[in-house]
Amino acid sequence: MTNPWTDIRATDLVIIMGGNAAEAHPCGFKWVTYAKEHRGAKLIVVDPRFTRSASVADFYAPIRQGTDIAFLSGVINYCITHDKVQYEYVKHFTNAGLIVNEGFGYKDGLFTGYDEAKRDYDRSTWSYEMDENGYAKNDETLTHPRSVWQLLKKHVSVYTPEMVERICGTPKDKFLKICEMIAECSSPTKAMTSMYALGWTQHSKGAQNIRTMCMLQLILGDIGVRGGGVNALRGHSNIQGLTDVGLMSNLIPGYMNIPMENETDLKTYLGKRKFTPTRPNQVSYWQNYDKFFISFMKAMWGKAATKENDFAYDYLPKLDIANYDILKAVDLMDHNQMNGYFCQGFNPVLAFPNRKKVERGLSKLKFLVVMDPLETETARFWENHGDFNDVNTSEIKTEVFQLPTSCFAEDEGAVVNSGRWLQWHWAGQNPPGEAKHDTWIMAQLWLRLKKLYEKEGGVFPDPIVNLHWPYEDESEPQPAELAKEMNGYAVEDLYDPKDPTKKILEKGKQVPGFASLKADGSTASGCWIYSGSFTEDGNMMARRDNTDYDGAGLYPKWTFAWPANRRILYNRASADFDGKAWDPERKVIEWNGEKWTGFDVPDIPPASDPHAVGPFIMNAEGTARLFTLAGLRDGPFPVHYEPFESPVVNPIAPNIRGNPAARIFDEDLAQLGTSDEFPYAATSYRLTEHFHYWTKNNRINAALQPQFFVEISEELAAEKGVVKGDWVRVWNKRGQVFAKALVTKRIRPIICDGKPVHVIGIPLHWGFIGEAKKGFGPNSLTPFVGDANSQTPEFKAFLVNMEKSKAPVDENGKAEQ
Ligand SMILES: Nc1nc2c(c(=O)[nH]1)N[C@H]1C(S)=C(S)[C@@H](COP(=O)(O)OP(=O)(O)OC[C@H]3O[C@@H](n4cnc5c(=O)[nH]c(N)nc54)[C@H](O)[C@@H]3O)O[C@H]1N2
Ligand SMILES: Nc1nc2c(c(=O)[nH]1)N[C@H]1C(S)=C(S)[C@@H](COP(=O)(O)OP(=O)(O)OC[C@H]3O[C@@H](n4cnc5c(=O)[nH]c(N)nc54)[C@H](O)[C@@H]3O)O[C@H]1N2
Ligand SMILES: [Mo]
C-alpha cells in the first residue's frame, strides 16, 4: 500500500475493484465504513459477482473477469476527453512531458520489438530521447507528438464507453456513472483510494491491471496525498513481510535482485542497478544500491565477505532464467528435474493451479518435506480419497517427512501489514507436543549441513560453512536477534564523512537508519528497508503510542513503517509545485522555505528545493511514470488482452491469445480449452468464514461453511435444469470437481458484444483433510499459466463446462450427502 490502512478514513471515494475487502479484509474494511459515516465518502464496487463489499456500496457495476485494463483505460480516456485531469500534478510530477524514442510504436496489440517465437520483446525502443548531457528531453507544454502525454492520449482513445461495454460487459450507463464519480477526484481537494487484491493480480496481465490504476491515480493527482493511493490489500498476515525479505526466487531482501549468471562480478552486477539521474538534480535513490547490497552481504557472511573477494559475491546463487517461480518448480518436478521439495507453511496441492500436474510432480520427487503445524493435503497427496483424491498410492514412491512446527500464534516477531507497518507480537502459547519453531528447525538443518560439509568437503562448501551465525544459542536464533540483524549494525567504528575525526557510531552498535549504511564493508544490514526498526533506542516495532497529529491517521509512534517510518509513500506529492499542500485540510508535509516539515517523514531529502527535485525519488527521472520504459516485460502502456481461456474474441487484438509476453509451457498450452467445448467463465474466490485450507481443521469454521459449492446464476441454472442444492459436475481438460449448486441472484449473465457470458464462482476452501465435509477447490480446473512479470497464476479467469450430476464418492464408495 502507498498509504496505511488507517488513512482510508480520509478519503472521498473508495473504489474496490479486483478485490472483495468486506469479505477478505473485514477488519481493515472498518476504515471504509468510517469514511462513509464521517466524511460522506462514497464506495464503488466493480466485480463480476455482487459481493459482500457490493452489498454496502453506493454504486455497483458488473465486469467480466479479466477485462479491467479496458475498463480503467476507458476511465482514463473519459478523464482526458472531459478535461478532468489535474494538469499541474501531471506536468510536474509525472513523465507526461518527456519525449519517447522515435523508434517506439504500437500496433494491433503489440509494441515494437516483439518476437513471437520467444514470446518476449526487445525493449530497447521503449525509452526516452536523450539530449547531449544524457538527460531525457522534456516538453513542458505536453504537445510534442512523441511526448508521453500525447502517446497516452492516443493509446487510450480506443477504449470508448461503447468499447468498454463490448469487452467488459459493463452497461454503458453504469460505466459512465462511475467515470463521473471518479473524475470529480481530479480536483486538488478531492481524493480517491483504490483497494485491490487478487481480482487484479491473478491474471496473466496482473501487473498491468495495477499499473492502469496507478496511471489513473496519477492523472487525478491522487498519489502521495491523504485519502489517496494505490492500495494492495495483502493476504497472509505476513505476506508483505515475505516479499520485503525477498522470499521470491529472484529476489534478495529489500527488493534487490539475485544476480543473473552472466553478471559474473560485483562491478557488472552493481553497474546495472545503480541508476544515475536521467533528469537534472534528481535523487535517483537506487544510486545507493551498492551500500544496501554490500551491507546485506556483510550480514550474510560477516568476516568472510571482504573487499578482496567482492564481498563474497561468488557465494550468491546466480539465475540462468528470470525466476524459479512455483509454476517452473512444479514443471521441473514433473520432468524429473527436481529431487526434493521443502514445503514450509504451504499447501500446494490445494493452492497451486492444475492439481493433477502438481500431484504428478510431487509423485516424481525422491523426498518431500512438509513443515506445518497441521495435517495438509500436500503431506497426504499420496493417499486415496475416492473422487476427492483419485490417486494410486502403490505407484507413488516419494518419501514424505512431516516436521511439526509452531503456528503464528505461538511465535514472537514482527508481522508486516499491508500498510508496511512492522508490528511486533508476542507468543500466546508454547508449541504443543513435538512441534518446534521454524527457526529451530532451520537452524538444525544448517548446523547438520555445515557439519557434513566440514567433514566431507564438496564442490563449493564456502557459502554454507562461512555463513555468519552470531546468535547466542546457535541452535535457535531468537526473533529479536534476527530483527536486529535486519536493521543493521556497525561492523567497524563509523566516522562522520564531513569530519573524519568525529566518531558517530561505535563498532557493534545498531545503525539508526539506512542512510548510515556504507559500501565499504563497515556496516551490515540484512534488509535495508527495515533499517530503523530496531535501533539503539530499542525495538521500534513494539511501540504502542497512538499519538495522531492533526487527526491524520498516520500514528507515527505506533510500531514502525518501512521505509524510515514513512507512512505515506511519495508524500512530497501531497503539496503543489511550490510546496504548499494541495488540500490545506489534508496536509501531510509542506515546504517552509528551508525544508520539508509536517506530520510524516518526508519522502524526499528534507532540504530539497521543490522546484528542482521531483517527488518520485526511486525513479531516475524523479517523476512517476505514465510510460514505464522497459520496467515491465509486456509493454510500457497497458493493453487489454483476454485471459488465456476466454469466452469471447478480443476486438482490440483478435489474433492474440492471452498476454503475448506471458510464459506458457507447451504441455500446458495444449491443455487450454476454448469456449466451444467449455462455454462458462469461471472465477475463484474466498469466504470470510474460512482462511484458505487450514480453518477447515477447526470445528467452528467448518460448521459455519461446511461444504464446497459453486455459485451460478438463475439463468444458467434454468438452462441446465439445476435447482439450488443439486449436485453438479464442473470440468475442463485439466480435471473435474463435484459441488453443490448455489443458485443466486448475486451472479448474473454478463452481456459482452451482445452475447451473454455465464459466470461460475468457485470458492477455494475445501479438500480431503479436516472437520469440514470432503470437497474440492478450484485448482483441479485452473490453468497453468501466470502473469508475464510476477508469474502469479491466472486463478481468476478460466473456462469450464457444467452439468447436473450425481454425488461424488469417497474411498469406501460412499456417496457424499
Ligand atoms: N476470510 C479470509 N480472508 C482472507 C483470506 C481467506 O482465505 N479468508 N485470504 C487472504 C489472502 S492470502 C489474500 S491474497 C486476500 C485476497 O483478497 P481478495 O482478492 O479480496 O479475495 P478473492 O475472494 O480471492 O477475490 C476478490 C474478488 O475478485 C473478484 N474478481 C475476480 N476476477 C476479477 C476481475 O478480473 N476483475 C475484478 N474487478 N474483480 C475480479 C472476485 O469475484 C472476488 O469477489 O484475502 C486474505 N484474506
Ligand atoms: N484458484 C485459486 N487458487 C489460489 C488462490 C485463489 O484465489 N484462487 N489464492 C492463492 C493465494 S493468494 C494464496 S496466499 C494461496 C494460499 O495457499 P497456502 O499458503 O498454501 O494456504 P494456507 O492454507 O494458508 O497454508 C498455510 C499453511 O501454513 C501453516 N502454518 C501456519 N502457521 C505456521 C507457522 O508458523 N509455520 C509453518 N511452517 N506453517 C504454518 C498452516 O497450517 C497452513 O497449512 O492460495 C493461492 N491459490
Ligand atoms: Mo494470498
TrEMBL record:
Q: Which cofactor does it need?
A: [4Fe-4S] cluster
Listed GO MF terms: 4 iron, 4 sulfur cluster binding; electron transfer activity; formate dehydrogenase (cytochrome-c-553) activity; formate dehydrogenase (NAD+) activity; molybdenum ion binding; molybdopterin cofactor binding
What NCBIfam families does the record tag this protein with?
formate-DH-alph (TIGR01553)
Q: Enumerate the subcellular locations listed in this protein's record, separating them with semicolons.
A: Periplasm
Q: Per its UniProt entry, what is the enzyme's top EC class, as one word?
A: oxidoreductase
Task: Give the Molybdopterin dinucleotide-binding domain ranges.
Answer: 682-798
What EC number(s) does its UniProt record assign? 1.2.1.2
Read off the Gene3D superfamilies from this record: 2.40.40.20, 3.40.50.740, Dimethylsulfoxide Reductase, domain 2
Originating species: Bartonella choladocola
Can you name this protein?
Answer: Formate dehydrogenase (Quinone-dependent) catalytic subunit
Q: Which Pfam families match?
A: Molybdopterin, Molydop_binding
Q: What are the Molybdopterin oxidoreductase domain coordinates in residue numbering?
A: 1-381
Q: Give any Gene Ontology cellular component.
A: periplasmic space
Family of this protein: Belongs to the prokaryotic molybdopterin-containing oxidoreductase family.
Can the keyword Oxidoreductase be found in this entry's annotation? Answer: yes
Q: Which domain of life is it from?
A: Bacteria
